[in-house]
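Dock EPZ; give full complex structure.
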Amino acid sequence: MDSILVTGGKPLRGEIAIAGAKNAALTLMPATLLSDEPLTLTNTPRLSDIKTMTALLQSLGAEVSALADGKVMAMSSHGLNSTRADYEIVRKMRASNLVLGPLLAREGHAIVSLPGGCAIGARPMDIHIAAFEAMGATIDLKDGYLHATTQGGLKGGVVKLRFASVGATENVLMAATLAKGTTIIENAAREPEIVDLATCLRAMGAQIEGDGTSRIEIQGVDRLHGATHPVVTDRIELGTYMLAPVIAGGEVECLGGKLSLVESFVEKLTEAGITVEETDRGLKVRCDGGRPKAVNVTTEPFPGFPTDLQAQMMAMLCFAEGTSVLEEKIFENRFMHAPELIRMGAKIDVHGGTATVHGVEKMKGAPVMATDLRASVSLILAGLAAEGETQVNRVYHLDRGYEHVEEKLGAVGAQIERIKGQ
Ligand code: EPZ
C-alpha cells in the first residue's frame, strides 16, 4: 500500500486548480440510467471512486468511457441488461446505492446490496427505503440485498425525509423525474451537488423546481433525453486546499473556487483571522503571519459547516491560539483522525460527538494511519507544518477523493512525495 511522506516547515506559494466534485460526479453518473440516450459529463475528477462507479454501471450493461485523460465521462445505458448492484462493488463505496432510484424509475425493479457500514458510521438506508415506499415501491431486505419492486412503476407523492439526507434526496430526485405525477420532497438536502444534479436532469428534459431549498417539486415525464453537463467544482477539495496555506503559511489561490460553495466554512476562517479574497480566477487565502485563532465548529447539513471539512478544520485548529470545540452532528464516528493528530503532539479531548482542541505552537512529524477519506487528508495538512517527517499510511483512502494530492501540494512548495507500497 502506498504512503505519503511530508516534511513540514515549507510555506506555500502559488495556485491549485480545484477539480470537479466527487460527490456530484457520483450522483450524476447513475443519472445515465434514466435515459437510453448518451449522457456526457465534463470536468469529471480522476478518482478511484469514479472508477468504482464506472465498474458498477458497466456491470449493469451501461457503456462508460473515460475520455480526455478522465476529465470527460461518456456514458450510455442503451444496453442496460441488469438491475442488480452486486455486494462486491457496493461494499467498496456507499454511493453505489444511488443506482437504486434510477433503476426503479427506468425498469420498475432493482436488487441493490446494502452497502454495510464504513469507518465513519453505520450508514443505514432507512430514509431511502421510506421514500421509495411513499412512491409506491415495495422494498424487502433479503440476504443483505434490497429487493425493490413496483406495481406499474413509481408514483409521484409527498416524500418527507426524516433527516435531510444527501443521498436519499439524490435517489428520490432522480427517480421522481420518471414517476407518474408530481413528487414533492420535503426536508430535502440543499447541498450544491443536489443543485448540480437537478441542473443536469433539467438538461435531460426533467421538470424540477426548488432544488437548493428544502422543498423540491418534480413533475414526472415519460422519458428523458441525452445531455452534456459540466460537473460543479468540488467544494470539499476547495476547502481542503484553502487550509493548506493557513497551516503551512504563505499564500495560495484555489482556481475555480467560489465563495458561494463554502460560505459557512469561510465565515469560520474569517473568525480565525484568516484573509480570504475572491478573485476573478478563484479564492486566494493567506495567513498574515502568526497562528490562526481558535474557533468553535458544529457540522450541519448545507448551508451549515460541512462534515466533510471537519477533519481538515481540526488539523488547522491543532495549531490555533486558544481552545476550540468541534461538534460532529452528522456522523457517529468521525473523529478517527484525532488519535493520529495526538501522535503528532496535538492536544485533543474527544467525548462522543464533541472534540475539544487545545492549540499548540508546534507539532512533530510521525508515522500515522489514514482511516477514512477526509481523515487522511487532515493528517497531510498537519504534516505540512509539523517539525520533521510525517508518513501517512494507507493512502488508498486519500485516492478515493483527491486527485494527485502530492502533485498539487508539491507544485506550491510543499516537500511531499508518494512512496509506492510493497
Ligand atoms: C453524502 O453521503 C456524501 N457522499 C458524504 O461524503 C457526506 O459526508 C454526506 O453526504 C453528508 O454531507 C456522497 O455524496 C457520495 P447522508 P450520504 O445520507 O448521502 C444518516 C465524503 O467524504 N442516514 O446525508 O451517505 C447517515 O448515517 C463522503 O466525500 C440514515 O440514518 O450522507 C449519516 O449519519 C463521506 N439513514 C447522516 O444520515 C439513511 O437512510 C447523513 O447521511 C441515510 C442517511
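Observed: The chain has 14 helices and 24 strands.
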